[in-house]
Amino acid sequence: MAYHLTLNLTNRAFPARVDSDRIMRLAKRARGESVGFDNGGDLALIFDADGRTLAQYDYRARCFSVEAYLNN
Question: Under a CB-based contact definition with an 8 Å cutoff, are residues 17 and 3 in contact?
Fold first, then answer.
């Protein structure tokens, strides 16, 4: 159960895979950055002080179903 980096619009090195606790610590609060969640928590966004997106993470849970097996 982890978030995977799908978009990085900065020259900062964001981690490729993080858990939900780490997502909350990615924003540099001293610079006014913030974290937002969308799509029921499946999408995590890191915003700058002006509200522009810096990075985007998608949530991917491991699923051991027949459907997941056939689709991968």
Answer: yes
30 exposed, middle or buried (CB, 10 Å; 0-12, 13-18, 19+)?
Answer: exposed
pTM: 0.80
The pLDDT profile of the chain, 72 residues, written as one tens digit per residue, is: 699 999 999 999 999 999 989 999 999 999 999 999 998 889 999 999 999 999 999 998 766 556 656 665
**Cα–Cα distance measured from residue 35 to residue 18, given in angstroms and rounded to the nearest whole number:** 14
